[in-house]
Amino acid sequence: MGYSLAPAHEIRYISSGIMNEPDSKPGASIRIAGIDRTREWRDRYRTNVEDRRVRGRDRILPPVLNARSLREQENESAYLRELVRLIHFKRHVGTHAYRIPHRPGMVGKVMLAAREVLWKILRYQHDRMASRQNVINSHVIDLLSYEHEERVREIEQLRAELKAIREGKGPAS
Amino acid sequence: MSGRIDQLLNGFADGDAISHEAVILRQHLKASGYESEIFAPRSHVSPSLRESCRDISEYRGSDGDTAIHHYSTRSPALDAFLATPSRRILRYHNITPDHYFRGFDDRLSEDLRDARARLIDAARNSDAVWSVSAFNAGELEQAGIENIRVFPLLFDPAGLERPSLKEVLDRFTVKLTTFLTVGRIVPNKRLEILIEAFYWYNYFVNPYSRLVIVGSERSCPRYFTMLNMMVADFDLPNVCFEGFASPEGLSTYYRIADAYVTTSEHEGYCLPLVEAMHMNVPVIAHRIGGIPEALGDAGAQYNGLDPNELASLMDWVTDDDAVRRDLLESQDRRMQMIRTRAIATELADLINW
């Protein structure tokens, strides 16, 4: 599997997060208590679905970074390679984009404002902790990568030796 | 009626749907006048169930008796079944297609491919095949097997009637709209679709919501890793992987759920749907495989929805009182049919066939 950005005909699928699968298929159907209510559901929710598709697009990772690529691997070795590749993109804990949920209405807005202030005050400490955690994450992931590379190198060497033995040349020096 | 009808299983474990059914079937067989025991390889029996079954090496079938084998991957139980002079009945619960596990667990993928390849031989060497659904029976019929009867999966609500578990309730004290799914965490369940649907729901419809996933993650750890990574990618705060649940724990999860959702892509029957209906939880299910047979006309059944659209169905079911009422009424009707099954008559018919 390649990791170049998705070709143009796949771009529209990225917005739904499903790689290589269409959005709602032509045969989309909903049966509630045995009755087909697809049309009613469409009339009621079509606008919401489209609106979300636009607003939520930025949070869906492109295929090159999406964990779902792990599903596409042909065997465990390929899975491991893909996991090691992906984890390099996912090592950092970010504190800048936390969403603060709030209830609707005036009380909800006041609570939101209070939480935002609190968040800003605590940010100094949060960022220090996150920074330290990120350093540790980096060490662990680097260690994992080096270990992985070492195992790959060893396997290649063993294969070469095995090949040499089979060809009657004796173990490679 | 008299005689022996024994069951041969590949494993006998708490929380396992096949083991659960074997226990119910044994009760019904004994009630019908048969001697009946469960045999399984000792190494694949939960410690708590050791007294409830016998080791497969002790199985001695004889002419005139009957052996029921709950078919799965290759094990000593299958060998004992194929070697017995007893009348042989193969119980087919379904084998997950191997491609779902490729890359996640190559050895299991091979075992499943092997199990599918051996299934036809095992069915041909059986006097009868009892399938848990017409969907399963169809798979065998396509391979030329003829002696198939559909005997839907047995359900016993006793485990779900137990009181709630305080440890579980204490973790979910905040009232949030709760979506539940139950089952082993394995690739054919397509939980990544459910997690993404929950992302659309939680971020854009109702941030006061949670997704509770109950089931062992040990069946396919690499798939579990992928799901965890997805949860982090979406920065989803309320996705709760609860692991394996005891019967008390399971009933508690059903009690706190506002809706049960399954995005599974391959199911022979799907017992948790019946459990959810029994617990009066509205069901949203992908209409595939044996699921329409488990649900009948009940619940909300969908096809061809992407995760964003599924989120709107989750919204509809939890937010619209009229839809919810229709769903629950349909589920009541379905459960009435399941609870009043004449199992003794069905069994007598099957055994004498």
Question: How would you summarize what this structure contains?
Answer:
Chain A has helices at residues 8-14, 38-55, 76-87, 105-166; strands at residues 29-32, 35-36. Chain A is mainly α and 173 residues long.
Textual characterization of the structure:
The complex is a heterodimer of chains A (173) and B (353). Chain A is mainly alpha-helical. Chain A has helices at residues 8-14, 38-55, 76-87, 105-166; strands spanning 29-32, 35-36. Chain A has a two-stranded antiparallel sheet with strand order 1-2. In chain A, 12% of the residues are buried. Chain B has 353 residues and is of the alpha/beta class. Chain B has two domains: 5-154, Rossmann fold (3-Layer(aba) Sandwich); 158-339, Glycogen Phosphorylase B (Rossmann fold), CATH 3.40.50.2000. Chain B is built from 13 helices and 13 strands. A seven-stranded parallel sheet of chain B has the order 3-2-1-4-5-6-7, with helices on both faces. In chain B, strands 10-9-8-11-12-13 form a six-stranded parallel sheet, with helices on both faces. In chain B, α6 (191-204) packs across α11. The longest helix of chain B has 19 residues, at 106-124. The radius of gyration of chain B is 21 Å and the shape is globular. Chains A and B meet through β1, α2 and α3 of A and α6, α7, β13, α11 and α12 of B. β1 (29-32) of chain A pairs antiparallel with β13 (300-303) of chain B, so a sheet runs across the interface.
Proportion in helices of chain A: 55-70%
User: What are the low-pLDDT stretches of chain B, counting only 5+ consecutive residues below 50?
Assistant: none
Number of helices of chain B: 13
Helical region count of chain A? 4
